[in-house]
Amino acid sequence: MWMLSLAVWILNVTNLTHGYDYDEYYPGEEETKAPLVGEGLRDLDTVSNVDELVELLYPEYSLVQHCLRRKTQRTSTPLHPEDDVWAWGKPREGALYKSDDGTFDVILEEIQRTMCSPREVCLEVSKEYPESTRHFYMPRCVSVHRCGGCCTHEGLYCTNTSHTYSNKTLLEMTHREHSVVMVAFVNHTSCECLSKRPQHSVIRRAAAAHLTVCSPPDVPCSTGLVWDPTSCLCVPMDTSFFSERELEPLESALLALCGPNKVLDEDSCECVCENGLTEASCGPGWRLDQASCECLCEDQPAPGTCPPNQRWDPELCGCVCQSECPRSQPLNPETCLCQCRDSPQTCLLEGKRFNAHNCSCYRLPCRKPHNSCPTGFYYSHYVCQCIPNHMRSGEWN
């Protein structure tokens, strides 16, 4: 009999070490698929302070807050609302930086209280060992730790990942006798939120590219219209690209933090051009337009500044040759003059003469009239004499 009781006890303990199964929590939902859980929601388990909570909930605001703190440390005088630093943060970033009402402390404290972790619970001994129907225990309940709490998503459940055995001294009683016994209970030491169902493969689609936006106007749009930060106009609500949440002043101010075509650099905490252009990359004679983030040419120089035969080209931002030359007379970029490809010297090397009118070489006619050549020869106008037929090749041309 005691062997049977021991086997039942071992089986009971083994089941307890694996925690509660999903079917025990949600019976009759075998076909239900667990929703997909984002990585950001899983990160809630790692939040330990207010800064981490703000960074998780508002990553862009957290970056602005960091930059505001850095700029505050660089300046010896307090920041004023008219400063450029405060011009960034209207209306939300500055509030995050100055927030001291303890709101996030309360939220963080509640998260830590309810997160999945080992919790002290009261267990009834008779329910932990239901096979001992003839025994009564004193005390009737014991205190151990079991996993409990809330996970960050309904598709997860809290379960134990490690455990120990806690021995409790109890008084075991029957109708006729009683004795002091040592009973082992499973004590959970660490917990984790796991998926209720195995995760399925997910097709991840590329996120839409970040759009450049305009700051909202000082005068609100008329009734029925909303500010579209992409077209910089007031448009009907049903034609706007952004959702209602993104069109709120809070989100719009964040999107327009640095203005169109610019992003906030995390290292320097400065607004830089999204295309990567800087003053140095524009080159000499060019300047970077901060509004459009394009390299613009400096003011056109006074007349007569360019050298002779040259003109000012605003697109190239420099002096270029103004002559247009024919194909036979290419342009000399140093002198900006049309020059012939051939010259008397090059024509002489070919046994020809130079024609200055059309910049070409020509051959003089033979002085002797055409004479008949013997068999196996032909008359060549290049050398003005008869040469063998086998010499008819390209080298004479």
UniProtKB/TrEMBL annotation:
It comes from the Eukaryota. Residues 1-19 form the signal peptide. Keywords: Angiogenesis, Cleavage on pair of basic residues, Disulfide bond, Growth factor, Repeat, Secreted, Signal. GO terms for molecular function: chemoattractant activity; growth factor activity; vascular endothelial growth factor receptor 3 binding. Gene3D superfamilies: Cystine-knot cytokines. The keyword Signal applies. Its main location: secreted. Belongs to the PDGF/VEGF growth factor family. This is Vascular endothelial growth factor C-like. It comes from Oncorhynchus kisutch (Coho salmon). The lineage of its organism: Eukaryota, Metazoa, Chordata, Craniata, Vertebrata.
